[in-house]
User: Fold cysteine--tRNA ligase from Saccharomyces uvarum.
Amino acid sequence: MNIFTRPLRRYAAMSTPKVVQPKWNVPAPQAEKAVLKLYNSLTRTKVEFIPQSGNRGVTWYSCGPTVYDASHMGHARNYVSIDINRRIMQDYFGYNVQFVQNVTDIDDKIILRARQNYLFDNFVRDNDTKLNAEVVDKVKTALFLYINKNFTIEGGEIKTVEEFQMWLSKADAETLKLENPKFPMHVTAVQNAIETITKGDSMDPNLAFEKVKDVTVPLLDKELGSTLSDPEIFRQLPAYWEQKFNDDMLSLNVLPPTVTTRVSEYVPEIIEFVQKIIDNGYAYATSDGSVYFDTLKFDRSPNHDYAKCQPWNKGQLDLINDAEGSLSNFADNGKKSNNDFALWKASKAGEPEWESPWGKGRPGWHIECSVMASDILGPNIDIHSGGVDLAFPHHDNELAQSEACFDNKQWINYFLHTGHLHIEGQKMSKSLKNFITIQEALEKFSPRQLRLAFASVQWNNQLDFKESLINEVKSFENSMNNFFKTVRALRNDATSSGHIPKKFGSLEKELLADFTENESRVHLAFCDNLSTPVVLKTLSELVTKSNTYISTAGSALKIEPLIAICNYVTRILRIIGFPSRPDNLGWVAQSDSNEQLSGSLEDTVMPYVKCLSTFRDEVRSLAIKKAEPTEFLQLTDKIRNEDLLNLNIALDDRNGQSALIKFLTNDEKLEIVKLNEEKLANEQAKRQKKLEQQKLREQKENERMLKAQTKPQEMFKDVALYSTWDEQGLPTKDKDGNDVTKSMTKKLKKQWEQQKKLHEEYFGKAN
Ligand SMILES: [Zn+2]
Assistant:
């Protein structure tokens, strides 16, 4: 048959050839598709996240720092938690986030602090840092003003130190502290000043001035504050603390914002925005040149609602006045309602000021965020975030201002509030002495430990920073470090082992199934309000399963699923903000990030080559002198326990397999050195004990031999006890000539037999 005719005949045999593809079936998913939900303060529930762009674009505004002092752990919790959320949205869910954050560099706290620092520095300089009579007088005046202003004292003013001490000794400190949390702080300030006035001469002058500062600055400010007009005074302090804040954020590996906005650079836009609110009928100017937001009118409007985040706080004067700032004049200034808040504040003498249609003044606190957020992100924004203590009135006022300006119903779609931070179950405060700045925290904990601590608690829940949390963090860190190190060592091992079997068995299939299941749980946790605590727990479980596989599989271990899992764990940790190694097999060691890996190949390799070369020399010299096998083994112990360990390398011996090579950090090396030393000390103690027992045995043996020298026939030949003996040397009469009793003879005979046996043992029967 011809090959060309055969296919033709086949064709011919077919009836109707198919010319269209068969029907394709749409796959049926095994579970419902998870959607990302966020806890929204505007609904107080988790709601599906729907970006306005309908696609990848997400706009996000976050309230930044008021820069007048060092940032503390509460700030760290807020900024790191928001950073984690932002990274997950960007790097896990793939959104293109435009993240805007402000710097509040115009604020009553800044004005006061800048003025007081400036005046106090002048005060110290004008007096040549000497505690002269004039200074002491001034401090005394300031002291009593401070006492009578900050303590409620029944029965008139305090005029002497003795009166104050008497009052304090009778005061109920616990109750006063409950009434005013700043009570202990005021007491400390007063006591410091009293101490300095009393023994000022013997104190270091710089310390003396430092100790009277708190009570003296209010008086200096009262007398001279209004004379200050140089804007530079109000620029330097916030510029300094803004830099410090940025340094802190860098240390904590917080991503910088896409756009940073400073209030001082936005005054014209703020004036324009305020004017628009006035034009829309929701704000009014007062006779002193301030502008207030008309909360009642806004709330009554059918299109608007006031206090969307926390409506139950409407009318809370302590919250409202606190937010208005300490330089505000709360007395009759034409404000229509106590709920109304300043959009624009008339500046008094000694306060920075800008020209405006209402007179010289400066922006109120809340308006800046509305203006700057909208300037960059427009009149409708996807996400706004900040600490929960900002929810009312700051964020509620921001919402009202913006919705009044744009006359829209919903300026922000998702309001995310990070939870409070407590320290060992208590609110953090300077008076409780549990106030920790970020810099202080970084002296005790690594940035990774702080981030892990924050990620271990749901971002919108209260976080208690306590010992047990830190212990959990450290144990998580250890288990991750061990896993990464083991996988890297196994990978190196597999690479150098040549052509090894790859076929999956049941153990590998089980591991792969566990991997898929954990991946899906991580995904569900991220979708469920970015739940990092559940994600970390799931990663931890995946690592435990992998470790079980490693120990069960032994020499039949397959490296591929382990590398896949290690890459995955590394990726998820990177998304939460822990930088990865270039090979994606673990996070960057904390010590590595500071160490510069530099130098030539020769410099890097030399210590290792030297170690190998020395080992070779020693093996050769042992072989030449035909040493015992134990000597070779001692040499292999030495290279493992000393030489390689000094180079930060650990060799883990394995049954029937070559040793596993692990690279160690310095801390891990020290840990092993310590363990080895303990082991050595234990062995030495055991040897010592053995030696002592040996000695004791020898001593007993000597005594026995000495005893054996006496022949049984001679052993009772003592005239002080006996007078006659039989032929075997057994006594028959005692020294007085009496017969030895039968029972005694029996006893002596027994001793005689024993001695005979002993003697014969050493000297034989012949003797
Ligand atoms: Zn804000």
